[in-house]
Amino acid sequence: MGLDDRKLAVLRAIVEDYVSTQEPVGSKALVERHQLGVSPATVRNDMAVLEEEGYIRQPHTSAGRVPTDRGYRLFVDRLSRVKPLSPAERRAIERFLVGAVDLDDVVHRTVRLLAQLTRQVAVVQYPSLARSSVRHLELVPISTTRLMLVMIADTGRVEQRLVELPGPVPADDVTDLRRLINEKLANARLSETPPLVQALVEEAPTGLRPTMTTLATVLLETLVERHEERIALAGTANLTRGGLLDFQGSLRPILEALEEEVVLLKLIGETEPSTTRVLIGDENEFDNLRAASVVSTGYGPGTTIVGGLGVLGPTRMDYPGNIATVRAVARYVGELLAQN
Amino acid sequence: MGLDDRKLAVLRAIVEDYVSTQEPVGSKALVERHQLGVSPATVRNDMAVLEEEGYIRQPHTSAGRVPTDRGYRLFVDRLSRVKPLSPAERRAIERFLVGAVDLDDVVHRTVRLLAQLTRQVAVVQYPSLARSSVRHLELVPISTTRLMLVMIADTGRVEQRLVELPGPVPADDVTDLRRLINEKLANARLSETPPLVQALVEEAPTGLRPTMTTLATVLLETLVERHEERIALAGTANLTRGGLLDFQGSLRPILEALEEEVVLLKLIGETEPSTTRVLIGDENEFDNLRAASVVSTGYGPGTTIVGGLGVLGPTRMDYPGNIATVRAVARYVGELLAQN
DNA sequence: ACTGGCACTCGCTACAGTCGAGTGCCAGGA
DNA sequence: TCCTGGCACTCGACTGTAGCGAGTGCCAGT
Description:
GO molecular function (chains A, B): DNA binding; DNA-binding transcription factor activity
CATH superfamily of the largest domain in chain A: GAF domain
Largest interface: A-B, 32 and 32 residues
Helix content of chain A: 40-55%
Radius of gyration of chain A: 26 Å
Distance between the termini of chain A: 53 Å
Structural class of chain A: alpha+beta
Keywords (chains A, B): Repressor, Stress response, Transcription, Transcription regulation
Strand content of chain A: 15-25%
Protein name (chains A, B): Heat-inducible transcription repressor HrcA
Oligomer: homodimer
Domain Heat-inducible transcription repressor HrcA C-terminal (chains A, B): 104-321
Function (chains A, B): Negative regulator of class I heat shock genes (grpE-dnaK-dnaJ and groELS operons). Prevents heat-shock induction of these operons.
């Protein structure tokens, strides 16, 4: 089980070569391209050990070696340093994110930026409502029996719901309702609103009771309980790079998985600690994504986290580079959010 | 140049067979599967004529015939009747669209529904701001020097912009600004707002002048001039049906095109008359989409059109079926919008 | 412990041969 | 005049064979 330094160096070399050439790498090519200071035969012996331990494998008997998911895992954990971003990349990030007019714009720019920099599929979760606070709730009369309820979160996210009222409500009442609701809910974390909303209904003047009840129902059901998460996606065309070699020739399962918001949320949304997460191959829970890896992290203003973002690509991806980019972008987005 | 009835019948049969089998169709198979009442030899003669006229072609010398874009065009224009929807499909549409909580929800449900029914890529344009009227403009104070401007359109679409004010503005002033703006702009078509906004600035009391100017700028620049169009997409995984036969093996160009909102808007957004539009193969203006066809139509409450929706797939698609589905879905969505 | 040498494996490519679906053409018949 | 059966032909798809070469495992020697 001893993996001495040289064997690790061999594994690192295999990963790096395979990632860049996309072809199984043999012992001879390895010693030519890296300063290992030993002969191909020695490397072969090391390779045999690495294969026994499950870090690499041979596609066919007479071919070179390819890293396994386990090999990538070891590489990511112990053999790679996060690449510093080039100044050009830093500038690209700043240039790209400056001038966004609203949250939608920020998210769209971010996801395209990520896709472009990493040349992978990029995923950005909108700031989660569950982790947001209410900044303001607005009631806009649409007709006498209809209101539009607009919620503005501190993250800049805006959600609206059409509310069918039990009966006609005069303008003055709407003003009162608006005041009551905001007094009670403004600055409350959305996850802590249920008791507050309950109190709102109970404390409401009799005249406003039915309307308030309706509003409370909509508020709780569509904004709190079924906490509406949103996702932006970009760069699916990047899946076709590397011909049909990655994803063993069928994009089908990948594209299907990418259409499911639930799947994407699980992939990038569950970043508990503020660290970068790397899921390699079948480490993720979805069969459709066995051949894919995900690099993701949380983002948010300051040290809090309000959502996740990341990239998805073939297991054969540039982990150090992608990790660096994902982190950097998350940091910039966080700063941008903090400014608002 | 005479295309008698039988030749047209042969073309129709070729299109139908090729669409369902995805394989070049030969003269013998044709007479077996269709009641043409003539021998294969006769069919071959007809095929030769059809090929001369450019309606069909042979992938290789010793293969059957395949319709050309021109052949599909003739088929769509003269040889097919729009398939009536099955009751199951009608029910699916109703079931799918009931219970949408807001416009976002309507659009998302619609696009998924379309993708599912047609098994193609579905595209839905959000109700265009250019064709909407202002229902209400709300100003929400974020801090003393920041407002959030929320615009609610009659189509249910809600847009918000963060506005950096030139100086602190007291709450009473915000109330005044809100009143002034709504008095002037409520119910105005967005395309007709520029002179109204201009007037707003000119008529504003001196104290509110600078703030009003800032608001006017944001309003015009981000909501009117650069009229923000939005698009929802679903069913990209359907592109992989039919293996790699459609799109000659490379999804790349298609996926790239689908990432460009501008492209999608041109494909489905320019539906001037209220009729269904079919773009076959290179009839569309994008090189990337040479191998694709688009079926699209406009939708909106009543007879007005506020946006477009449609499906995109291989030229080898079920035109009559897709046309019927696209129309039906557009009609249902229109009714749904009319209710709000 | 590393190295050079050697036999071996096996996927890839090229090539030849066969098969068969499909065609174009033509002469004969309604 | 139009349709039909017959026939020779084309050419892609598939199969089998052979040679090549990258890469390996093993072993004896340093």
